[in-house]
Amino acid sequence: MRGSVRQRSEGSWQIRYEGPADTTGKRKYLAETFRGTKKEAERVLRERLAAIENGGYVPKQKETVAQFMQRWLDTYAATNTTLRTQQGYRGYVTRYIAPTIGNLPLQGLTARHIQGVYAEMLEHGLSATTIVQLHRILREALSHAIKWGTLTRNVADAATPPRLQRKRLEMWDVDTIHRFLGAAKDSRFKDLYHLAILSGMRRSELTGLQWENVDLLGGKLSVVNTLQRITGHGLVVGPPKTARSRRSIALSPEAVNLLHAIRGRQIEQRLAAGDAWQNTGYVFTQANGTPVAPDMISKDFCAIVRTAGLPHLTFHGLRHAHATLLLTAGVHPKVVSERLGHSNIAITMDTYSHVLPGLQEAAALALDERLARGRRPDTN
Known about the structure:
Oligomer: single chain
CATH superfamily of the largest domain: Intergrase catalytic core
CATH class of the largest domain: Mainly Alpha
Structural class: mainly alpha
Distance between the termini: 82 Å
């Protein structure tokens, strides 16, 4: 089986090789243009010849990167991810893929092209987090191009996004939390904020919480749904973020009393609304029983923080406050991880280990203490 590499212009090469046999046993020479170094072009030629030899060759197609990404979104993503995730994927494709490498033939895409996109994004001041997420989306999409027989290898595997630098999370201490609750006493979302601190639930989990999933006698609630606003779809009910996010949370006596009070006020609202009341079953509702919009909660939260002159924090910071309070109180990280619905305990430890400055010192002292207990007395 033969092939050759011939330079066409500066940085452009023609790769020519003998293709696979057709139904009559005849072989035709195939050609494609490659941009890069001669060494890279020769590597591509070897890959093509090896693929033909082992039967894994995929004929060159005219589908562009943008066309393939759209096909992936409309097929795989549409049937295997939530609307929220799909919206995020489409945003990344529209903003960062279509305008840069979108017009390239899919089978002409190289790691060098992808690396160039990452470099350009950094140049424009985009964060490493955004670039890493784009990298994950590309790798996932191109893995399906291989499964579908369009590509023979995932070129995104050879591209390297910038390394993430974990930022120290902003935390509120107990005094600041009490100041916030005092400042929020007149807010229509004050109860939701309070339960967020007591439960560590995400915003979408709180807005999606329904009374049928609250057991006041047993002192627990179940996280089984989320409620999020999705552009073009309004408020959408969906599953929790991950399989581990679907969980049961034990409630403290304060949380139980809070939920009893919420239910009492909701009964009063229902009576006041009369026929206008909509029995949606949600714990947190508007005056007519309809669910609250998550984006309105975040706006209200930021306004309270700003007006009260509190240290900057987003609503998600209340979840961090919950975890911090538990860990500093000596609650085992495994328990905290389960309450938060993290995929594994490593996420919890990576995120919150810095709030326990004495953790290493305590470990060292515990080791000495354990060894001292096991040391046998000198018999001489």
